[in-house]
Write a structure and sequence with these properties.
Blueprint (H helix, E strand, L loop, with lengths): L3 E9 L6 E9 L5 E10 L2 H7 L9 E2 L4 E8 L11 E4 L8 H4 L9 H6 L10 E2 L5 E2 L12 E5 L3 E3 L15 H13 L6 E5 L3 H12 L4 E6 L2 H10 L3 E4 L5 H9 L3 E6 L4 H9 L1 E9 L13 H7 L2 E4 L7 H13 L9 E5 L3 H10 L4 E5 L6 H4 L2
Helix pairs in contact: 4-5
The protein binds zinc ion (2 copies).
One zinc ion (ZN) binds next to helix 2.
Length: about 375
C-alpha cells in the first residue's frame, strides 16, 4: 500500500512492558474513516490493564483511547466532519445493532471486536513498521498513543474550538464514564445522597456530576488522603478513609440508613459488596470498575431483595458520545464541571512516568501531550 503516513507511536511490545516510542506508518482514511493529528491523549486505567494483559488485546499494539486532535484527512464517505475540525475520539460502535439503534451504543453487540480485538472487524491493521510488519491497532477504534490516529466518523466527536483541545481527550472515556454513570444511568436526583467508592479520575468525575445533579450529601471513600482532600475541594460533603474508618457504618450514619446512589470504580469485588451494603432502601449502585475477566462478586440476596436495591453495570457512562461529550464541554466552559482539576500533563517521551504516577495514585488523570502548539485558544490565553 502506497498511501501511508509516517508516525511516531508508543508501542506496547509484550505483557507488562514499558511503552516504547517508535517510528511507524499508518494508512490513509478510506470509507467513513478519519485521520486525526493527535494533540494529546489521556491515559486511562484500561490502557494499563491491557498493557498488563488482564484484558486479552493482542500485542504488540498501539494503545491509547482518550485522544483529542485536529482532522487531517477524511475518507470519501464522511459527511459531517471536515479537515481542520477539533475532535475528541471515543469508543467504537457499529451504529446499526439493536442497542445502537435505541441510543445505547456503549452496549453495541460489536463492542469487544471494535475496541479490543487489536484490528478492524475483518482482522486488518492500519499501522505497520517501516519494514512492513503489521502492528495491532484500532484500540477503542483509535490507538491514539501516536502522532496520528485513524478513527471512524461515528466515534470522532466535533468539539468547540474555544476550548483548549489538549484537555478534552479524557472526555472520550474516563471522564464520560464517571459523569455519565451519574447523569445517564443512575439519574442522581436533587437533595439525594451519593457515594463514590474510589476517588480516582472516574470516581471524582462522578462526584462532580452528582453535585451538578443536586445531590446534597456527597461522600467520597478512598485510602489515599490526598485524593480525599481533592474530593473535598471538588464538593464532597464527607470523606471516609476506609483504612481507618468502617465505611458502611459511617455512610449509614451520615445518610440516616444508607445512600440513595453510589458508584463503584475500584474494580474490587469486596468494595462492591460494601457499596451494596451501604445503600439505603431503593438505593442504586453503578458498577464501572473493571476487574480481571472472570471475577465474581457477592452480596446478601435478602438485603438486595427487601431493600429493593439495584446494581447496574455501566459502560462509558451509558452515553451517546456525539451528544454527551459536547454537553460536558459546555458544562466545563460554564465552570460547572471543572474536570481540569483532575489532570496533569506529560510530554510524549515521559509516557512511562505518567503510567507510574497513575499507578501510584499521584496523578489522577495523566494527559500525554503528543503534538505542540496547535491549540489557538491556549495561545491567546
Ligand atoms: Zn452496535
Ligand atoms: Zn478508558
Amino acid at each position: 500500500m502506497n498511501d501511508m503516513k509516517d508516525i511516531t507511536a508508543a508501542i506496547t511490545a509484550c505483557k507488562g512492558a514499558d511503552f516504547e516510542l517508535q517510528p511507524l506508518k499508518i494508512r490513509l482514511p478510506q470509507g467513513d474513516e478519519v485521520l486525526v493529528k493527535v494533540v494529546a491523549t489521556g491515559m486511562c486505567h484500561t490502557d494499563l490493564i491491557v498493557r498488563d494483559q488482564y484484558y486479552p488485546v493482542p500485542l504488540p499494539a498501539v494503545l491509547g483511547h482518550e485522544g483529542s486532535g485536529i482532522i487531517e484527512a477524511v475518507g470519501p464517505n464522511v459527511t459531517d466532519l471536515q479537515v481542520g475540525d477539533h475532535v475528541v475520539l471515543t469508543y467504537g460502535y457499529c451504529g446499526k445493532c439493536a442497542q445502537c439503534n435505541t441510543g445505547n451504543p456503549a452496549y453495541c453487540s460489536e463492542f469487544f471486536g471494535r475496541n479490543f480485538s487489536g484490528a478492524d472487524l475483518e482482522g486488518n491493521n492500519a499501522i505497520c513498521t517501516h519494514d512492513g510488519q503489521s502492528v495491532h491497532d484500532h484500540f477503542f477504534a483509535q490507538s491514539s498513543f501516536a502522532t496520528y490516529s485513524l478513527s471512524r466518523e461515528n466515534n470522532t466527536v466535533k468539539v468547540s474550538k474555544d476550548v483548549a483541545l489538549e484537555l478534552l481527550g479524557p472526555l472520550g472515556c474516563g471522564i464520560q464514564t464517571g459523569a455519565g454513570a451519574c447523569i445517564n444511568a443512575l439519574k442522581v436526583t436533587p437533595a439525594s445522597s451519593f457515594v463514590t467508592w474510589g476517588a480516582g479520575a472516574v470516581g471524582l468525575s462522578a462526584l462532580l456530576a452528582a453535585k451538578l445533579c443536586g445531590a446534597s450529601i456527597i461522600i467520597a471513600v478512598d485510602i489515599v488522603e490526598s485524593r480525599l482532600e481533592l474530593a473535598k475541594q471538588l464538593g464532597a460533603t464527607h470523606i471516609i478513609n476506609s483504612k481507618t474508618q468502617d465505611p458502611v457504618a459511617t455512610i449509614k450514619e451520615i445518610t440516616g440508613g444508607g445512600a440513595n446512589f453510589a458508584l463503584e470504580s475500584t474494580g474490587r469485588p469486596e468494595i462492591l459488596k460494601m457499596g451494596v451494603d451501604a445503600l439505603g432502601i431503593l438505593g442504586k449502585i453503578a458498577v464501572v470498575g473493571a476487574p480481571q475477566l472472570g471475577t465474581n462478586a457477592e452480596f446478601d440476596v435478602n438485603d438486595l431483595l427487601l431493600g429493593g436495591k439495584t446494581i447496574i453495570g455501566v459502560v462509558e457512562g451509558s452515553s451517546s458520545p456525539k451528544k454527551f461529550i459536547p454537553e460536558l464541554v459546555t458544562l466545563y466552559q460554564q465552570g460547572k464541571f471543572p474536570f481540569d482539576k483532575l489532570v496533569k500533563f506529560y510530554d510524549f517521551k515521559d509516557i512511562n512516568q505518567a503510567a507510574i504516577d497513575s499507578h501510584k495514585g499521584i496523578t489522577l488523570k495523566p494527559i500525554i501531550k503528543i503534538s505542540e502548539g496547535v491549540s489557538e485558544s491556549i495561545l491567546t490565553d
